[in-house]
TrEMBL record:
TM annotation in the entry: none
Keywords: ATP-binding, Kinase, Nucleotide-binding, Transferase
Domain of life: Bacteria
One of the protein's GO biological processes: glycolytic process
Enzyme class: transferase
Species in which this protein is naturally found: Kroppenstedtia eburnea
Any single Pfam family the record assigns to this protein: ROK
This protein's GO CC annotations: cytoplasm
InterPro entries in UniProt: ATPase_NBD (IPR043129), ROK (IPR000600), ROK_cs (IPR049874), ROK_glcA (IPR004654)
Entry's family note: Belongs to the ROK (NagC/XylR) family.
Name of the protein this chain belongs to: Glucokinase
Length: 320
């Protein structure tokens, strides 16, 4: 007997499922491919089957699972529990909350993937104990979750915190959201690869040339080249952190967070990212407001989304 909560982190490549106790302690987790092309209905059915399987593998009776939360990477109608549009998965207008509820017979709550990662980090990660923090995830996309006064901010339309779509480059390259020059086009993993590819295309000499030409270049290659002192890789990272730091400087003036918690695959670059990011933030942010603002790595890694999503339905959490 007990109370357990399932969190699902829906991503472009994989679906991560985790089960927690009522304190946000992750007890068991699992992962399956998203297979976006199979469509939303098939995806939803696999998520529901995966959730039951997860409880079973953890030795937890389904009757003790009190709720399920789902984090999804894109634009949602929170009141209706619907996916409106996801930037990297072609599923549109999916009534996923009710669909999962019907399949599983337990309460389901949905929220944005970066919002739930922010909740996870605030519940039991790098932001534990902080009432004012902003989480920014740097992965395929750039996501954000804003916690202010101890609450996750949704705003009037439920889309507050979509920091990846803050426009930073007038007339810049098209973004998956339909706009141009969004932060995501520069500071995401995709943005870094694009910048490195453009540098090679412009004839710059760099050890990244062979990876670009083979079409295999990843952020890891860029980070490794930067660590070896390659000026092109260092410039690419500087461009990405400069745009990010400008956005952080603006956010600092909006809600004066105690910390920016940076997660997502790109944050795995460690000090190769954090040192220039802190320097750029120092350049752009208003000193009186920025003083004492910490810029720290997320602690829960890939587990943040699952843990935060589970927390969407757990009482006594920020959302419960
Ligand atoms: C989406 C966000 C999401 C982020 C990270 C962005 O493209 O608009 O909703 O949080 O990617 O997945």
């Amino acid at each position: 007997m007990g109370e357990y909560f399932i969190g699902i982190d829906l991503g472009g490549t994989s679906i991560k499922l985790g089960i927690t106790d009522a304190t946000g302690h992750l007890l068991h987790k699992d992962e399956m491919p998203t297979r976006p092309a199979e469509g939303a209905k098939a995806g939803m059915e696999r998520m529901a089957a995966g959730a039951r399987q997860l409880a079973e593998s953890a030795g937890i009776a389904w009757g003790d699972v009190k709720g399920l939360g789902l984090g999804a990477p894109g634009f949602l109608d929170l009141a209706e529990g619907k996916i409106l549009r996801l930037t990297n998965i072609p599923w549109e207008n999916v009534p996923i909350r009710d669909g999962l509820q019907d399949l599983l017979g337990i309460p389901v709550v949905i929220d944005n993937d970066a919002n739930v990662a922010a909740l996870g980090e605030a519940w039991s990660g790098a932001g534990a104990g902080l009432t004012d923090m902003v989480l920014i995830t740097l992965g395929t996309g750039v996501g954000g979750g804003v916690i202010a006064g101890g609450r996750l901010i949704h705003g009037a339309g439920g889309m507050a915190g979509e920091v990846g779509h803050i426009p930073v480059e007038p007339g810049g390259v098209p973004c998956g959201c339909g706009q141009q020059g969004c932060l995501e086009t520069i500071s995401s993993a995709t943005g870094l690869v694009r910048l490195a590819t453009a540098a090679v295309g412009a004839g710059r000499a760099t050890p990244l040339k062979s990876d670009v030409e083979a079409g295999t270049i990843t952020t890891r290659d860029i980070v490794n080249a930067a660590r070896e002192g390659d000026p092109v890789a260092l410039e690419v990272i500087d461009t990405a952190v400069d745009a990010l730091a400008r956005v952080m400087a603006i956010l600092t003036l909006v809600n004066n967070p105690a910390a920016f918690v940076i997660g997502g695959g790109v944050s795995g670059a460690g000090e190769t990212l954090f040192t220039p990011l802190r320097r750029a933030f120092g350049r752009h942010a208003l000193p009186d407001v920025a003083r004492g603002v910490q810029i720290i790595p997320a602690q829960l890694g890939n587990d943040a989304g699952m843990i935060g999503a589970a927390g969407l339905t757990a009482k006594g959490t920020m959302m419960g």
